[in-house]
Structure formats: structure tokens, C-alpha cells
Amino acid sequence: MTTIIIGGGASGLACAVRLKQNIPDSDVIVLERMNTVGKKILATGNGRCNFSNIYAEHCDEVLDFFHGLGLIERADGEGRLYPYSNQSSTLLEALTENCKKLGVEIITDCTVIGIDRDLCVTTDCGIYMADNIVVATGGMAQKNLGSDGSGFSLFKSIGHKITPLSPALVQLTSSSKYPRALKGQRVKCNMTILLDGEAKCSQFGEVLFTDYGLSGIVTMNLSEAVSENFSSDIPKKCIASLDLIPDMTEQEISDYLSRFGNLSGILGRKISDIIEKQSAGDSERTAHIAKNWQLIITGTKGYDFAQITKGGADLKEFDGFQSKKVSGVYACGEVLDRHFPCGGFNLNFAFYSGIKAADQITEKN
Asked: Is residue 344 a contact partner of residue 53, using CB atoms and an 8 Å limit?
């Protein structure tokens, strides 16, 4: 039995290892268009690889898989899981060393041009016939690390529907001058995305001001609504409204101002000065702005900076991870229309889906 896995990222490598563990005498070939596998793995978690989360669905199954490879994890206070070494290379090496030990063939610098219903894979380095094809190409986020959107074209070519695509978990751009003035500062606040004045989504957490706009986990998690808005033919006016002091009411803030004159003791001097200037020194208006500080959002930083792609191969057209349209074709990871918040949830799904795709192939054979 020969299985061709297109893509040597998280889901593809996990699928390759699991399949060889399940069926040692099978031929498993990973085709990777980059010059090495796992580039995106190395970049995740600022080089530490936040590969799962204790609150993620199927986390236990992912941990069992990695424990079997000798990888030990550690958790932070938010439930994010990292290799015990705090180095993404440790996790990637666990995958690649086991690929080598188990006999997985990895071919790099190999671009897949097409697949067909006869399970033929055409590449720029030859043609491969397979019993199973696993598409693990990722989405369109961070093309320089390997995800170029080619998997969507492969599925379209065999009749699959691709749901609308947009960058997700991505920074937001702003035409307001204040984020640039506050570059590098972080605030814990409640952030709401307003579209034509209507609240679309909201979340509490850390926001980072940058020279282009806003970053931070809350920003990334709310970016989906912004991406969808600016992908439409007629985008709505988009505002990020920040409640900078969610623990106090406007009246409590006004009382504080009556006593201390400004908000520097709560927000720091820079933000306090900006809000005071906006309100022209009016304490009631200062309190209102502190609870509803509005920044104009002009878009996102796009796919090159996004962590993941929203949208993908329609899950309705799969039985588990096997195509309902072409028997023997499977999908795993970001190429599927499945995405999650920041914190290791997306990488957890990539590994889990790769593992389960391999198990489905095993059951069929």
C-alpha cells in the first residue's frame, strides 16, 4: 500500500508517523515543496511551539501521540502546552527522527501540480500512483513558511467546494494616530469590533499598540470579523472600541478624576494624556472615552502575517477526514474549513487530524 502525503507540516508529518506506526510495511511518501519540512512548526509560539492546550478538544490524544515519540510537555497558566525544552525544534525533531526511524520517505523541493480521481499525483519531480492521497498543504497564511493555498486548488479539481477564504488570527491596521504614538505599550481591556456602529464581537484581554495598528491575542481572536468585513464588496465602517478600564464604571472613573485630576495612576501617563486631550479636560467625557475609546480600523495585515486561514475544504464533503467524492483522498489540518482561537488550538487540530486521517486509512486497509 502506498500513501502520498502532500505537505510536510504539522498534520502531514503526524499523519506519516502514525500511518507507519499502524502499518509498518506500507510505503509512506511525504512531498514538500519547500527545501525542508516543518518550517511553520519552528516559527510557532515565538520559537517555543505552543502545540496544544489543555482545554483543546482531543488534547489527550495529541499528548498520547507525542508521549509515544518521547516528547514531554509543560503548561503555562493559560493552559498552553509547549515542549518541555521550550524549543520548537525539539518537537519537529521528534517527528522527523521518527519518520526516519520508521522509514517514511520525505521528498523536498517537490511541487505538486495536480491530483486526479485515479489517485495519480503529478509533480514537478515526477508522477506518483497511490492507494491513498492525504492533502496536508495548510491554508494561505504565511506563504514564506510553506502555505501557498495550493491545497484548495487540488480539492477544487476533484469537485470539492471551498468555503470563502480570509486571513484569521491576524493583526489589524488603523488610520488613527494613537496606536503609533503608543507603539510597544500593552493594555488589558475589553475590545469590541463595531461594524457601522453595531457590535459584532467582543473579548477581554491584552491589546498591543503598534506602528500600523493593533496586535495581541485579543486583536488576533477578533480579526475574523474584520477580515470578513473587508472581504465583502461594500465593507462597513469598522471601529475597535476599547474599554480601557473594565473594572470601573463611568461614575467611578469620574469620581477618581475628581480626586486625582487624571488617569495616569490607572492607565499610565501616555494614554491618560491622549484621552484628556481628546476630552478637552472634561471629566465626564474623559470617563466616557476611557470606557469607549474608538480607533478606526482599515483592515488586517493579510495572509503574510496571519496565523491561519478562515475557510477551506467544506467539512460536509468529508466522512471524518476522507473525501466523500473520491475514495482514498483525505484531508487534514488547515486546508479544511476548521479554525480555532489563539493558544495552541489550531496546531492541536492539525496534529489530531493528521493522526485520525492515518487511523482512517488503517481501518480501510
From this structure: yes
